[in-house]
Amino acid sequence: MTSHRQAGIGAASVGMGIALYLAGVFFFALNDALGKWLVADYTVGQLLLLRSIGAAIVLVPLAWQLKVDLFDFGQWRLQLLRILCMAGDTYCFYFATRSMPLADVMTFYMAAPLIITALSVPLLGEKVEPFRWGAVIAGFVGVLVALQPSAELFSSSSPIALIGAVMFGLAVTVTRRLRRTHWLPLVIWQFAGAGVIGAATVPFAWVTPTGFDLALLFLVGIVAMVCFICITRALAMAPAALLAPFQYSAMVWATLMGWIVWRDVPTLPIVLGNCIIIGSGLFVFYRDRASVAAPAE
Question: What pLDDT, on the 0 to 100 scale, is given for residue 36?
Answer without folding.
Answer: 78
